[in-house]
């Protein structure tokens, strides 16, 4: 079990660092203000980060156990990566929006208000809706849920693909 924790922590930290790098790149190329309409696509692509981390963790786990482990062993390791990565995703979101880009939410709110104005829509309603969506609390919850839910699916997939097919339920 100690091996599972070491591997999970290592790849969760890697996931967290890659998530921070991804957010910084989004910020530098303007996806968080000028090109905010593309932010959803970037967010979907960013899900590759925890998927990659899970895959690498299970590849390392397989090497540690001499190339053979059960689905349950693989899934247990992957779930630890998912849990730690999901918590780190919240920390990354907090750090990024408070220290790297403190105007993150205000920029997105203004973008959507301007978009409503250009379309002849109700800017007051657009602002209210944007403020409800673009805030730290919602963003942290969303970071956790996106990472957790996509991670659970990736954990099941990679555990199935990389396991040796034995029915051993040990989680060494």
Describe the model.
There is one protein chain. The protein contains 7 helices and no strands. Mean pLDDT is 92; it is low at 167-172. It is an all-alpha fold.
Give the fraction of residues assigned to helices: over 70%
Low-confidence stretches: 167-172
Query: pLDDT average, as an integer?
Result: 92
Principal-axis shape equals: elongated
Largest sheet: none
Derived from helix and strand composition plus strand pairing, the structural class reads mainly alpha
Strand-helix topology:
Layout: H1 2-29, H2 39-46, H3 48-64, H4 71-100, H5 104-118, H6 123-133, H7 136-162
Helix pairs in contact: 1-3, 1-4, 3-4, 3-7, 4-7, 5-6
Write a concise keyword list for the protein shown above:
172 residues; 79% helix
Give a brief description.
This protein has helices at 2-29, 39-46, 48-64, 71-100, 104-118, 123-133, 136-162. It is mainly alpha-helical. The protein has one domain.
């Amino acid at each position: 079990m100690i091996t599972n924790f070491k591997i999970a922590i290592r790849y969760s930290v890697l996931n967290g660092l890659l998530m921070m790098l991804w957010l910084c790149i989004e910020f530098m190329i303007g996806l968080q203000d000028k090109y905010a309409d593309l932010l959803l696509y970037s967010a979907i692509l960013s899900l590759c980060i925890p998927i990659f981390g899970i895959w690498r963790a299970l590849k390392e786990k397989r090497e540690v156990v001499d190339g053979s482990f059960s689905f349950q062993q693989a899934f247990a390791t992957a779930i630890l990566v998912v849990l730690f990565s999901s918590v780190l995703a919240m920390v990354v979101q907090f750090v990024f929006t408070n220290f790297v880009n403190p105007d993150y939410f205000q920029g997105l709110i203004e973008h959507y208000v301007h978009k409503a104005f250009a379309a002849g829509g109700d800017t007051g309603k657009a602002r209210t809706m944007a403020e409800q969506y673009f805030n730290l609390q919602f963003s942290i919850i969303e970071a956790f849920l996106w990472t957790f839910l996509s991670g659970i699916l990736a954990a099941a997939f990679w555990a199935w693909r990389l396991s040796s097919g034995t029915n051993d339920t040990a989680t060494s």
